[in-house]
């Protein structure tokens, strides 16, 4: 008697029927009863046919009909499942969070995710680039949950996004970060910004305050950061982390503007 083959397509349809878009290698092994090697070979065939994607070892995403031409799935639809699979706390951050909060011109080629130690390598494959930033931790007030077709995703609040971008200024460029902050300042809650700023380094709060106040004319927002700084020891900081070290110290924020500023909007 010939052993019945495992219906992989039926399995995929079953996953989709319960509102999921991802599955793991271990799930298929358990359902099929086949050994790991046999399952991996079969799933590789489905990858070559454009039915699924291998995102990380043992974690697969189903390519639904509406994405069959581009053979890629929006990160936001599976990032929560991926991070759960990896057993990591996380939130969508930086340029990706900025885009979700309405910084419309920010459509980064890569998807930015903040997580905790230990270090994790970026995921880079054809049409897939997930960039991981490491933090020691964060307060729950720094994140909000966004509802998607497949569940909920942790996303940095607009306020945390601003502070994160300033903290990672060297990675994106001063002009670009200022342009994003200008857009996000329209949706910022001052009380939330004040609360969240307590979890960031003094230098980051100084630079953020200076950008909002002196460069964008948003003293109405920046004053809440000055309240945070009034309880700390403040030392002079360069605005940019570039090698250029000239500039005059500003009295209020103790910032030395040391870079040419061209706002990217």
Describe the structure.
With 265 residues, the protein is α+β, with helices and mostly antiparallel strands. The chain has two domains: 8-67, Arc Repressor Mutant, subunit A (Orthogonal Bundle), CATH 1.10.10; 75-256, Beta Polymerase, domain 2 (2-Layer Sandwich). Helix content is 39%, strand content 18%. It has helices at 8-17, 25-32, 36-48, 79-85, 94-100, 158-167, 169-172, 174-184, 190-197, 202-215, 219-229, and strands at residues 22-24, 52-56, 59-62, 90-92, 111-116, 123-125, 128-135, 143-148, 151-156, 237-238, 255-256. The strands form four sheets. A four-stranded mixed sheet has the order 4-5-7-6. α5 (94-100) runs antiparallel to α6 (158-167), α6 crosses α10 (202-215) and α9 packs parallel to α11 (219-229). The longest helix is centred in the last third of the chain and has 14 residues, at 202-215. The termini are far apart.
Contiguous low-pLDDT stretches (5 residues minimum) are none
Radius of gyration: 22 Å
Helix tally? 11
- CATH class wording of the largest domain: Alpha Beta
Q: How many strands appear in the DSSP assignment?
A: 11
Q: Under the CATH scheme, which architecture of the largest domain would be assigned?
A: 2-Layer Sandwich
Structural class: alpha+beta
Oligomer: single chain
Overall, the morphology is elongated
Count of discrete structural domains:
2
């Amino acid at each position: 008697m010939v052993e019945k083959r495992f219906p992989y397509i039926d399995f995929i349809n079953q996953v989709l029927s319960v509102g999921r878009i991802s599955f793991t290698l271990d799930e298929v092994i358990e359902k099929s009863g086949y050994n790991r090697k046999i399952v991996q070979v079969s799933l590789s065939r489905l990858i070559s046919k454009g039915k699924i994607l291998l995102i990380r070892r043992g974690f697969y995403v189903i390519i639904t009909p509406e994405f069959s031409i581009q053979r890629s799935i929006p990160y936001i639809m599976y990032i929560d499942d991926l991070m759960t699979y990896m057993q990591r706390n996380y939130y969508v951050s930086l340029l990706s969070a900025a885009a979700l909060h309405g910084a419309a011109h920010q459509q980064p080629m890569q998807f930015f995710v903040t997580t905790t130690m230990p270090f994790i390598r970026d995921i880079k494959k054809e049409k897939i680039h997930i960039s991981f930033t490491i933090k020691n931790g964060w307060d729950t007030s720094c994140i909000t949950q966004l509802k998607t077709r497949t569940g909920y995703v942790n996303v940095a609040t607009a306020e945390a996004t601003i502070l994160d971008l300033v903290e990672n200024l060297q990675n994106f460029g001063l002009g670009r970060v200022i342009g994003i902050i200008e857009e996000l300042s329209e949706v910022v809650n001052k009380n939330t910004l004040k609360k969240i700023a307590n979890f960031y380094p003094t230098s980051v709060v100084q630079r953020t305050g200076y950008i909002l106040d002196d460069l964008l004319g948003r003293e109405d927002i920046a004053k809440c950061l000055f309240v945070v700084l009034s309880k700390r020891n403040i030392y002079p900081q360069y605005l940019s982390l570039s090698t250029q070290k000239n500039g005059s110290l500003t009295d209020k924020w103790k910032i030395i503007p040391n870079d040419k500023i061209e706002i990217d909007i």
